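User: Assemble these into one structure.

Assistant: Restating your components, then the assembled model:
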Amino acid sequence: MKPFSALKFFKENKRKGLMTFIVLILSICAISLITVMINSIHESFDVYTQPLTKYSLVAGSPSDLYLNQSVVDKLKSDTDIERLIPCDTDGINTNFSIGGSAVVGTFANSSNTKYLLGKFGDVVKEGRLPKNNTDEIAVHRRIMLNKNWELGQIVGNKVDSKEFLSGSYKIVGVLDGPAVTFVGTQSNREKQYIKNGLDITKPIEYAVFAKPGKFDAVNKTLEAINVNDATVSDFNNIMTQSNDSFASINTTLIGVILAVTIILSISISSLMYLIYLQRSDEFGILLAMGYRKSFIYRLILKEILFLNIISWAIGFLLAYFLIYLLNYFVYNPQGSVLNFFSLNVFENTLCIPIVATIFSILPILSKMRKQDPITIIERRD
Amino acid sequence: MIECKNLTLSYKDGNRENLVLDNVDLQINNNETIVLLGPSGSGKSSLIYLLSGLKKPTSGQIMYDGVDIEKYNSKQFSDLRRKKFGYIFQQHFLVPYLKVIENVLVGAPKMSNTYRVKAQQLLHELGIDQYMNKRIFELSGGERQRVAIARALISEPDIIFADEPTASLDHNTAVEILKLIKKYKESTTLIIATHDTSILDGNESIVRIEHGKVIRDANIGGPNI
């Protein structure tokens, strides 16, 4: 039985450590939740851009709806390209995670659609793929959940003005797989274009699939195309556009963590200082009895560190439980998921107990260095 | 044996030099019981602090078993104080959040089952073994001081330094506590500082201190000095 251990003081004086304990737990829980939420934005972005890790899109330039023939010829003669699929793209607005986003879908002829889904790794889970010359689409399971759509439902901005997807389409299939997307047939959309006076004999957009191992080389070729000749949407392109917004989100997150850590550490160190000031007699008498200062320093360090570590662990578990509830009641029904386990959740929350321990320990040790046992012994209370 | 030669302690108060102890020479043999007697402010507590290594003298020498304690390094000095010396103060200075037995173990030089058994034995001898697992606030003043005695004795020290160990107790409890401390005089040297002669039983060597000087060193005949 050791009279002094790291947990003894706060175990026997629960009320003294309670405030610190609660503040730490809540802060760690809050930082964990904020980090997980922000991670979910990144993850949602990854999910939406997943198709662009398999293909790239080349469309007409902002000044010309049609693709420049020289660009088409160049693509057709490129030996790194496995398949060039004439297509049309559109979007469905979704609400995965914080804020809204649009999921890109592809309209191509049915044989090309099968090839495209094969490349994405998606399969038809329910129903079937859209037929040529019909207003049909097949939609990924997660979009269906997010939009609360059902198989057979008619969707599009003709039936819902808030919807991005132009026209009206019947959902005939549910897709499943890594790429969150939707597919329709190009032939029927061409009718719309003809109605609007467009020349559908001219190429409008191509989905470009590279040969195995040539994805980066093809993207480089596409990125070299003059912006006046075509609009290229590839993975690098999308990432460059999004990096700025992610950088500001990350800076905000770091700012929040820093502010919380510093304010919290100062508050905790003040509380700790008061607690240890009340224990001056105890430490003074130990010194008088021949205990070394290093023993007392180690004891104080262990006590504060353990309190911080236990609070961190409980705060972390509480955050995990809250994320579980959020997933169960909010995110999963939307076809989304908050992923709790990531390195930055550990990193962002661990800095709190570490800095709080350092902030707490330094003033106490500085006070201890000046501790004179005689002053304590001679005090006549 | 503990011995001091030309021990002087002074401190500066502005431009004035205050002499607390003035060239004190003292030799205390093993298993001797010494009472440092004198009025408040005479320097008896300061002498205890110097002899027990809690304070450094301005000048002079303190020898423990023939070795100048200045020659001990920091670790050796801590070990000496923890293993060879026991301390009892006017206030018990027990750790409030520890149980009675844990407070006794605070005085043990290391943690082992042997010391736990020893602590139980001491609490039994001091008549407070029934409070072994109680907290300090549940004990009376006399009981708390008994725990402090057990804490001082657990390491089986060569010397026990007791600075006004009965000052905060009523007369009967004070007499009882002093008896308990003296119970161990066969195995240890006792150096007790007190200003209260009424608690002495006449079997102690008295060292009278006044104004920082040892003015009488003799065995007295009874408490009515």
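The radius of gyration of chain B is 18 Å.
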